[in-house]
UniProtKB/TrEMBL annotation:
<dbReference type="InterPro" id="IPR017475">
    <property type="entry name" value="EPS_sugar_tfrase"/>
</dbReference>
<dbReference type="Pfam" id="PF02397">
    <property type="entry name" value="Bac_transf"/>
</dbReference>
<feature type="transmembrane region" description="Helical">
    <location>
        <begin position="83"/>
        <end position="104"/>
    </location>
</feature>
<keyword id="KW-1133">Transmembrane helix</keyword>
<dbReference type="GO" id="GO:0089702">
    <property type="term" value="F:undecaprenyl-phosphate glucose phosphotransferase activity"/>
</dbReference>
<comment type="similarity">
    <text>Belongs to the bacterial sugar transferase family.</text>
</comment>
<feature type="transmembrane region" description="Helical">
    <location>
        <begin position="12"/>
        <end position="31"/>
    </location>
</feature>
<dbReference type="Pfam" id="PF13727">
    <property type="entry name" value="CoA_binding_3"/>
</dbReference>
<feature type="transmembrane region" description="Helical">
    <location>
        <begin position="286"/>
        <end position="307"/>
    </location>
</feature>
<protein>
    <submittedName>
        <fullName>Undecaprenyl-phosphate glucose phosphotransferase</fullName>
        <ecNumber>2.7.8.31</ecNumber>
    </submittedName>
</protein>
<dbReference type="InterPro" id="IPR036291">
    <property type="entry name" value="NAD(P)-bd_dom_sf"/>
</dbReference>
<keyword id="KW-0812">Transmembrane</keyword>
<keyword id="KW-0472">Membrane</keyword>
<dbReference type="InterPro" id="IPR003362">
    <property type="entry name" value="Bact_transf"/>
</dbReference>
<feature type="transmembrane region" description="Helical">
    <location>
        <begin position="116"/>
        <end position="137"/>
    </location>
</feature>
<dbReference type="GO" id="GO:0016020">
    <property type="term" value="C:membrane"/>
</dbReference>
<keyword id="KW-0808">Transferase</keyword>
Length: 468
């Protein structure tokens, strides 16, 4: 039933896309030759000629949408990935149109403006339509319709994690029928999902053909049975997937290499270990820090004057921090506290209403002005514009023993701002949650993510309510 519904849905989706392409094309023609942007547009070609081109444009675009995975199920497909595929498909479509019209047909009178209007209108309408379909499907699935029925094979942490995510996202439209396991007693439940019996019961359950998917969620100690269970599942023709129980070892997506046919799974994929990526990020840091130093020079001058007028001592406060590959460096900040001995400052957090913080220091901490000298750390190469925030050696030694995977953050340069900070984890907040966000950043780094974090830093402001 699910497969039939999916085929019907895909056919309807193709029809909707064809209509959207036609509407976008007509809108582009009207905008160019009739609407407010028409100006002195000359119609060298007839309306009928332009419309005839649709007989080639529509099928080409539908093929491109299929090639760029725009007809895959939307249960757990991300919106950003889908929009990215829309942009890619339309960009390739535009290039094919330009090549076909001006190179193959040599029709130089075809409006170039109209093609670009069509490009942008079609992308926007396709995204709006897909958003509407996505919300409609989620609403239908929340009401218990259009469901996929799944059986889990193996009771493990992976099974519990999978159940947690399915139950927390009813819009995905998954129904877990139960669990089969040889080591847990039948009738045992986890969040309402029962252990139905032993794995051998697959031989009875699969021929009934009432399942849409089998999810193999064996514990690590039972991986020796994987080949046997996969063989049983594949005989039935039911779609089978494997959810590995190594979350405590490989917490997010692994990086797989092909070593002459032998799959090699790296424990963690760090894009910035790639030389090209590292060079691009470093160039961005140099350019960005220079621009920021120029832009914020009046603010830094004001801070220097106020520190000098209100408190005796040095203008710049230098503190040892742990950076890339566990190497230490001296991080610069505007001094916001009274001068104190190194021993007394080394092991103490700043607390709310801390008497050591000066009057101007409170303002600088609250508005993050005290962090601006770190732009020179970035220029030197100690830090990056974006990355996990660096910590003092004493706390690094403390957290490396208390928090799993804490030291992974030192595989990249520390940053002036970061993914954890723009998500609210600054100052006196959970270190564990901060590390989760830092790990996500490290494993999913891209130029786009860096730009997004920088923009969010400005949009959300520099005010830190947790800075004391």
């Amino acid at each position: 039933m699910i497969k039939d519904n999916q085929k019907y849905f895909n056919r309807m989706h193709v029809v909707i896309d064809a209509v959207v392409i036609i509407i976008s094309y007509l809108a582009a023609w009207l905008l160019k030759f009739v609407g407010p942007f028409s100006g002195d547009a000359v119609r060298s070609l007839s309306f009928e000629w332009y419309m005839t081109a649709l007989f080639g444009i529509v099928p080409v675009y539908l093929i491109l949408y299929y090639a760029f995975n725009l007809y895959t199920p939307k249960r757990v497909q991300g919106r950003r990935l889908e929009f990215s595929n829309i942009v890619k498909a339309n960009t390739v479509g535009l290039l094919l149109l330009i090549g076909g019209i001006y190179v193959l047909l040599k029709e130089i009178n075809f409006s170039r403006d109209m093609l670009f209007y069509f490009y942008f209108i079609n992308m926007c309408l396709e995204e709006l339509v897909r958003m509407a379909i996505r919300y409609l499907l989620r609403d239908i699935r929340k009401r218990g319709l259009n469901q996929k029925h799944i059986l889990l094979v193996g009771y493990s942490k992976a099974a519990e994690g999978y159940i947690d995510r399915i139950l927390e996202n009813p819009q995905w439209g998954y129904q877990i029928r139960g669990i089969l396991d040889d080591n847990v007693e039948a009738g045992t439940t986890y969040r309402g999902i029962k252990v139905l019996g032993r794995i051998a019961n697959l031989m009875v359950i699969l021929p009934e053909n009432r399942l849409d998917e089998i999810a193999i969620t064996l514990g690590l100690s039972e991986y020796y049975r994987l080949q046997e269970i996969v063989a049983m599942c594949e005989k039935s023709g039911v779609h089978t997937k494997f959810i590995p129980d190594y979350n405590n070892i490989i917490p997010t997506k692994p990086y797989t290499e092909d070593l002459l046919g032998l799959p090699v799974i790296n424990i963690r994929y760090v894009p910035l270990t790639n030389t090209f990526n590292a060079v691009v990020k470093r160039l961005m840091d140099i350019f960005g820090s220079l621009v920021a130093i120029i832009l914020f020079s009046p603010v830094m001058l004001f801070a220097v004057i106020m520190i000098k007028l209100t408190s005796p001592g040095p203008l710049i406060y230098k503190q040892e921090r742990v950076g890339l590959h566990n190497h230490t460096f001296m991080m610069y900040k505007f001094r916001s506290m009274e001068v104190q001995s190194k021993e007394s400052e080394k092991k103490a957090w700043t607390v709310k209403n801390d008497p050591r913080v000066t009057g101007i220091g409170k303002l600088m901490r609250r508005t993050s002005i005290d962090e601006l000298p770190q732009l020179f750390n970035i220029l030197k190469g100690d830090m990056s514009l974006v990355g996990p925030r660096p910590e003092r050696p004493f706390f690094v030694e403390k957290f490396r023993e208390e928090i799993p995977r804490y030291m992974v953050k030192h595989q990249v340069r520390p940053g002036l701002t970061g993914w954890a900070q723009v998500n609210g984890y600054r100052g006196n907040t959970s270190i564990r949650k901060r590390i989760e966000y830092d790990l996500y950043y490290i494993e999913n780094w891209s130029i786009g993510l860096d730009i997004k974090i920088i923009l969010l830093t400005f949009l959300k402001g520099f005010i830190n309510k947790n800075a004391y």
